[in-house]
């Protein structure tokens, strides 16, 4: 089946996905949850097959000499697979984002307006090495009533095929047509997918910054996600030094490869002489390379010089640039100039200063006296995260299932016409919200 | 002041707007309402000046021989101006869309997350002839805490300048910096504005379909609005004939120039012989030109033939295309193929059929037994409408003030770090919603 899908032109695949998705959109929560349970069951039954496919992928990748971090991401052992299947069952437990009544209003007697959430339609998901991402994405797509066209990394092709085969097998015994899930395997298909704005409603790219930027610049389909994550921590003049040190270390060194880790530390000049030596000591113990501006170097002469490029760089590594600023205004100006509107935090004991920071920094997540690393859908209690958006329009920040639905205005009347409410003897609307 | 703004490069104007808007974003509802009241007052004081400027615009336009409908839209007499000023005062009465707490959740003791609405930043509004549009837009922008860069039609340049001058004068006595409102007057500036994605957060084009499409295709800034509005009315086999006739006439002929008027009537074959002659009689009385497919012509031999082009045409005029379909599935397929995802309606007494239609038609507004002409922010009770969006992602349908705001995730801790919630002895989150 999968082979056949790939052989047919992409547009046919997209149409078939769309058609199957339009049926999925109308299914009850129970029917969708049954499909999700069937997927979990089918993946369990296909465990050996999936692991064998992954070993074959890993062998090829090793022979091709792919970098070690990528190799680790590619590996899908029994432990990772069990976690991914547990994740599918968790999605089954989440609240259904479809069918929520956002507005219920009588416009006049017998003329009732409802705004109700509904699926977007078809999602296009392009992800890199990690094959278990396909498992999570498919369960989220089905829970939200959407079809999904997956394009995995070429290193993971056998793993993805085994996973999607199992998922389709699981779905075949449910109310959900297996056509709602499709797998693409070639790079050419990715480019074609980005052009299908008639059939695909949202693209979610999961990969490197440059890859996400490429996607954003090469499609008219809305893109959910973010390219850069240049996050800042500002240590105010009235910061608690202990909190400041501990938050800096957590925000930089707890897991530097992720988007919500900080890249630049901004320090108020009046606290710098006391704070910087203390934080530098702990950061150096954690093997973090420090790079400072001239004023920082005067306090920490042992560290490297930060150049203008540093302020605009997402290291995603054990490197931290440090700049001393004269005021909170300078800190905010630096963040709004170099930041990615992702996550920025302030450490201060002054509530007014914290409010100024929260009010004037133009980012999706703005924190006071806690680590930037909290910017995450699971930590926010969303249950599942489809991505973190740094765009200005909603959905922004960590996006859960609600990012995969839209809404329709539905109105029922009894022959109501606009002429009744227009002109000299116009009837008035009642506009009464119904509970 | 206006002259000076225009003389300086656009990027400087945009930066200045952005700076003024970031202060406006923090103002209280009361301060914004005072500014809106001051605008209304200043426009009243400048009434003569504005009307004189408009007369000059109209004289030039008449000399240039602009079409009569455009001329009528350009005219801003004392009556229209009074209505527009009343509209400003109405915006003052609307609920403030900024500062609404959408999520308030304790993640753990002392670690509290809030999602709060905030302004988008700077709006770019490009509108055609009607100069009073500037008045409405500025009041909506200020209510929602946004800066606004206006570009009016070249025919209305004197009127717009007089209006913006009065608005800035009004603002100069308030907490709102007059720099939040800017007026551009040349076509070259429009093109440049569309490129300023670093400074402008949302573009709202108000004009012809081709103009909106041009804007959508030539900017990376999000665009709120719609190009086409090809709306359908489907008369089901179990429709009430009286309702069907009355809704058809209202949806087509009550005001055909607007986007929510229908262009195509789809009729179930089993009701066509009874319904079509009745509706044709009334539509012809209202001077509506009818164009039908072959099966329609068999019933209404007097009308013109509809070609394939008709199904894809927004007439915006007293013309209606008619097609007979064999089933609701055929009707839905036609709508999803040719429609604009704007507004489509069904007339039927069968509730199940209505539900199928609402479930499977993929439009922003889907109506049952009422006219498509109800798709409108004022009629929905939003108080003000910034546009109707036909995109799939929210905001879609009629968009009120809520379309001019976004949100920030704000979190306050007391030194909380992620390391506490990770690894072998990970603490659990409480994820408790606070009321």
Automatic annotation (TrEMBL), chains A, B:
It catalyses: L-glutamate 5-semialdehyde + phosphate + NADP(+) = L-glutamyl 5-phosphate + NADPH + H(+). Pfam families: Aldedh (PF00171). The gene is proA. It is found in: Cytoplasm. It comes from the Bacteria. Catalyzes the NADPH-dependent reduction of L-glutamate 5-phosphate into L-glutamate 5-semialdehyde and phosphate. The product spontaneously undergoes cyclization to form 1-pyrroline-5-carboxylate. This is Gamma-glutamyl phosphate reductase. One of its GO terms (cellular component) is cytoplasm. InterPro entries: Ald_DH/histidinol_DH, Ald_DH_C, Ald_DH_N, Aldehyde_DH_dom, G-glutamylP_reductase_CS, Glu-5-SA_DH, GPR_dom. Belongs to the gamma-glutamyl phosphate reductase family. PROSITE patterns: PROA. It is an enzyme of class 1 (oxidoreductase). One of its GO terms (molecular function) is NADP binding. PANTHER family: DELTA-1-PYRROLINE-5-CARBOXYLATE SYNTHASE, GLUTAMATE SEMIALDEHYDE DEHYDROGENASE. Its EC number is 1.2.1.41.
